[in-house]
Amino acid sequence: MNTQFDKIEKKLEDISKKQGEMNVTLAKQSVILKEHVRRTNKLEDRVDDVESWRDKAIGIIKFIVIVAIVITAVAAIATLLVL
Fold first, then answer.
1. Cα atoms in the 13 Å half-sphere on the side-chain side of 73
2. What is the pTM (predicted TM-score) of this model?
3. Distance between CA 79 and CA 72 in Å, rounded?
């Protein structure tokens, strides 16, 4: 009977040891996750900046296209009036 208790005690010690190892692994992963979140947030901020500049560039390009269309239309009308 005593040997069964010894076996159970040994298994409980093994489980406790594995649980301790899991806690260490979890702590390491938690630190890694915090660093990952920090870097991800930093990159998201940079992407927001790039998107802002992209939106401004698209607006400028649209303005240039509209001005070019107006200039072309005025030149075409002027050419027709001269003929």
1. 6
2. 0.54
3. 10
Under 8 Å CB-to-CB from 24, ≥6 apart: which residues?
Answer: none
pLDDT band for position 82 (50/70/90)?
confident
**Gap between the Cα atoms of 20 and 14, Å rounded:** 10
> What tokens does 14 get?
């093994």
In the predicted model, is pLDDT for residue 39 greater than 90?
yes
SS3 (DSSP) at 1: coil
Compute the half-sphere exposure of residue 83: CA atoms within 13 Å on the CB side of its CA. Answer: 5
DSSP state of 66: H
Place of tokens 């938690």: 30
The residue behind tokens 């649209």 is 62
DSSP secondary structure string for all residues of 70-81? HHHHHHHHHHHH
